[in-house]
Amino acid sequence: MAMNYFVWNANPVLLELGFLKIRWYGVMFALAFVFSYNMMQWIYRKEGKNVEDLDRLLWYLVIGIIVGARLGHTLLYDPGFYLSHPLKILAIWEGGLASHGGILGILLAVYLYTRRSGDSYLWLLDRLSFPCTMSGSFIRIGNFFNSEILGTETTEPWGVIFARVDDLPRHPVQLYEAFCYALIFFVLLGVYRKTWDKPIKGLLFGLVISLVFLVRIVLEFFKTEQAMYDNGLPLTTGQMLSIPFLLVGLGFVFWSLKNYRARAGA
Description:
The chain is 62% helix and 6% strand. The chain contains 8 helices and 5 strands. The protein is globular, with a radius of gyration of 20 Å. 37% of the residues are buried.
């Protein structure tokens, strides 16, 4: 079987320096922030904003994303284990970050930041939308290095055997998701280039939320269940959590376009 499929057996630790272990996941996570920061610099310069403000925004986002994503994973997917071992909640280097919690963390962090900066909340969410999407692509590659968020068994020739887990060929769903997020990034970048100077607040935010969580709903069919409990429903926990985000995203798309057309016709 192993001769017919790609066997993935990469060490998740990139480098060991005494007690310090630098993991591929951490490197990908850091690259995600570096990429997003540079994209936001480009956006701020393009729109005549003060680039120095990004330093403070970055700290809000780092804390919001990490805390939100970690709490989302620990409390939504495996609450029994983490409530019994609360110190493990802090072990983010072991992996385990939920995008649902990360999105909520971003929303709260941006809200707190704009209260002090005076920026428009929706304007900033729109500008963060597509850099964050590519960041999600980097993070899913990190999941691939960790041999986590596994796909279901497959007989397709592109199946991958994650040797650190078992000898079953599986859908490389982490790479599927990384590719989809990268594609969404380029779509939203194109929309931004055409609309950045138009008063269409909330469009990019609505698009990114609806597209990302539509991808999540579809790809969950190719993932093993991540929640350490049975929700008793035909949909996975990840799909159930994604549906409200999808609906909210679609709502913002329709609302933003309706407002823009009403202003244009006024």
